[in-house]
Here is the input.
Amino acid sequence: MCSISPFPVSDSLVMAEPRSLISASIPQTPPGIIMPPADGSGTGVMMDPIEYTLRKRLPRKLPKRRNDVYVNMKTDFRAQLARCQKLLEGGGHGEIRVHGLGLAINRAINIALQLQASSQGALQLAANTSTVELLDDMEPEDPDEAGEPMARSRNNSAIHIKVFYPDSQ
Here is the structure.
């Protein structure tokens, strides 16, 4: 890979230091996270990520019906697929709802598509997406030195797939 420079190159050209004296004299702030306080006031709090432990809360419980299947990444894919097939065939349900949150969205889609393929096209799919607000707790590692626990809100994507036989609507 050869490039042609419009500037003449000489042997006496000396490369400059990557850091100039000006940038070296500016104090560097340690990496941290600016967190909004849990009470909702407008001022942010600078916190060191080393001093706090992130505890992710479980999402709020959605209405649990007998034909709802909540897909996760910890359970074996084949076991979740078999559960869905059992609900459709022997559960007396004409439809099931497959729910996936975050990383489990792809798995929920794959389960619904596998169900449709194994039924030779007899099943239909209807998908809805949503955003779910999740809360995380930031707990200080040393309660004596650090501040009080904080809560952080974040959004996560979700999918809800209705798998049904068209004549049973």
Summary: Helices lie at 21-25, 77-90, 105-118.
